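Explain this one:

_____
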Amino acid sequence: MHRNNELYQFLLGKTWDLTEEWYANLDKSQSGGIYASDEPAVIESVKKQNYEFHKQFCEVFNKDEETFFDDFEKWIVKVAQDEDHLRTPLPMILYQFFRTQDQYLDLIDEFTERNKNKYECSQITRWRRIVVKAISEVVTWFTEEYNNHSQKRLEAQQDLIRELSSPVISLTKDIALLPLVGDIDTARAKSMLENTLQQCNKLGVNQLFMDLSGVVMIDTMVAHQLFQLIEALSLIGVKTTISGLRPEIAQTAVQLGLSFDHVSIKSTLSSAIKSASLIPS
């Protein structure tokens, strides 16, 4: 454990000065995201986060390493999951960490200059190494938390997009439409199966029009999952009518030996809707 009470007290007394100096020298023209904001609330928030960092970081000279990082965890996780920071490119955030590292190295120089001949070079070198090591570990930890949270956020957005890409639209009390547009990959087909079953069950649907006229191409795996959806719908009492089935998709289904027993086929959506007497003949 590395302790030095005089250096610790010196750094502790500089915490707010460090924040003000850091923000005053922030080059907004070269920064982005949270650091380029002119909104008073955002500026106040980023200064507060920076100040809290310094209060935590000074403890590297007052606590053992394990306790120091245990106590730092809350700050790292909180800032890594902060929405304003998540909208800020990671390289810009890391650059600010290394600016802060330079601040501490400069303060060690200032402290040793004030206390000439009091500390050996080996002690000063150890202090500098403590700063560099601590910043490196904080940066590594922060990057992992930032990337993990960004990935979870992205996955949640993708789930929402997939859900919106297969909307079940109510036409009547017990009839609904599933219009499919664009390419359908395996992930979207899986999400579509789950979402469609849930929505049909929730809406009390007993007949579903599935329009494929906007689907350009699907592979054999997706075609198989599409028919799995039709089979699953039949098991919960939903009759499926497919419209806009392209020849190549029909050919793929035949080659796979997929059954059309539980599905009605119509050439167009309008003819499918007419067959259910939803519009006049």
About this structure: The CA atoms of residues 273 and 279 lie 7 Å apart.
